[in-house]
Design goal:
The protein is built from four helices and seven strands; from the N terminus they run E-H-E-E-H-E-E-H-H-E-E. A hairpin with a 4-residue loop joins strand 4 and strand 5. The protein has a seven-stranded mixed sheet with strand order 1-5-4-7-6-3-2. The chain is 27% helix and 31% strand. It is α+β, with helices and mostly antiparallel strands.
């Protein structure tokens, strides 16, 4: 189970490409959409994982073993391009990107579509 990051302050920051992680550090969007193989490397290195599915209200933080397990669960549904309506008719899909704090710490940020 992840840590819920939903609160009224996060909503304003999220729209500006910024969040405060469960670790208390501020992260900002640094990268564009990435492929699963690059995301695999990030997860293997131990970075936290954030799932942001606006339509369902999901905004969760996972780290450690929970991040590894959640990544294995959603990995088949990560796409590098904007999903088509046909693809979305089959399953929710995720776009992955790198977010970074001021000290260079990274997290894998997945934005979901359904």
């Amino acid at each position: 189970m992840g840590t819920d990051l939903t609160d009224c302050q996060q909503a304003d920051h999220r729209d500006q490409g910024k969040i405060t992680g469960a670790d208390g550090r501020g992260y900002a969007r640094r990268g564009t959409k990435m492929k699963r193989s690059a995301a695999d490397d990030l997860v293997a290195s131990g970075v936290p994982l954030v799932l942001d599915m606006y339509a369902s209200g999901q905004f969760e933080w996972f780290d450690g073993d929970a991040a590894t397990r959640k990544w294995a669960e959603v990995r088949p549904y990560v796409v590098a391009a904007q999903p088509t309506s046909k693809e979305l008719g089959k399953h929710e899909l995720w776009n992955a990107g790198v977010w970074q704090d001021d000290e260079g710490g990274q997290l894998l940020y997945l934005t979901g579509s359904c």
